[in-house]
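Sample intake sheet
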Amino acid sequence: MRIAFHAPRASHLEPGLSGDKVYVDRLLAGLGERNHQVRIVSRVNVRDFWRGRIPARRLLTEAILVHRTMKRFSPDAWLVYEACVKNPDLFGWWQHPKQYVLINTDAGTGEELPWRWRRLLAFAHRRSLARADEVAAWRPKIADHLLSIGVPQERLSILPLAVKAWDRMPSREEARRRLGLPQGVPIILCVSRLTGTRHDGRPSKTEWVLKLLGGLALAALPPDVVFVLVGDGPGRQRVEEKVAKLKLHGKVRLVGSVAHDNVVWFYAACDLYAFSALTDRMFISILEAQASGRPVLTMHTRSAELTVDAGRTGLLAKDLEEFQAHLSALAFDRARCESMGKGGPEYIAKFHSIETRVRQIEDLLLGRK
């Protein structure tokens, strides 16, 4: 099948550590492995337009180029990744592709858009949703929103993010030797970018990490426990200040940014993956930890229900107090961590592997949902 692939937020096509960049890279590779011919439609970032970094005539020129290229390519299907009001598909829906599929779709309000472009981009996204043969949201809350604005139930799916199994999973002992971590102690891991303050007022990932550090300080934990945080960003100073304030220097190791291919060593080294996310979202790291045979602890949300086999591959906490209780219980019971972790690879392979997700997307593209 010839597939035209479009990511309106073109930064997702660049190498990087964010979940979207990793997922898009794996998705394109997975489609190629199934012998589909995939061509990227455009590398122009719609955000650069409404932020004033490129002029409107640049988009017009790009639209003409895309139309010519796609006419020669003659795709069997057009696949759009993460279209929303802020990042609408400006190139695909009006070309009437044979099969038009939106994945990781959002509705959104576009409140942060400049007023002069808001109506135009919102119109483009509405037309894209109306034209789509299939629409896949990546979490339940977004699916609810899409239904509320008129996307028919029969054309709507929920397809969470997915991960690729590591080529080789090191032993815990090998990983700890490589990373200089002690062998005989419980190790708790968290992988997160330390993002800056959000413009919409919602808590950032840095604030989630700060809550997690607070939980570490309050929970009853083994005296020799080590908490490893992988990730970097504008919020690092706040994290360092929190570690100092809570007197956690002996327990916390801030690793900084790590290339994605090397994160496997940290999953292998830990006993438990913990992330007290305060928003109903899905995270690649939660899936990767289970794929690595490590139990996960996170908050009980609708997204977590879809991506954690609660009680078997991890625990979901209804609030921060219960999160602390679970953290303490698992940190003191490494045998339970080992037992729970064993179910993770099978669960991920069946429901959340990139191979599974590519087959599901393939079905949408072939119109056999």
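Comment: The radius of gyration is 22 Å. The first strand starts at residue 2 and ends at 6.
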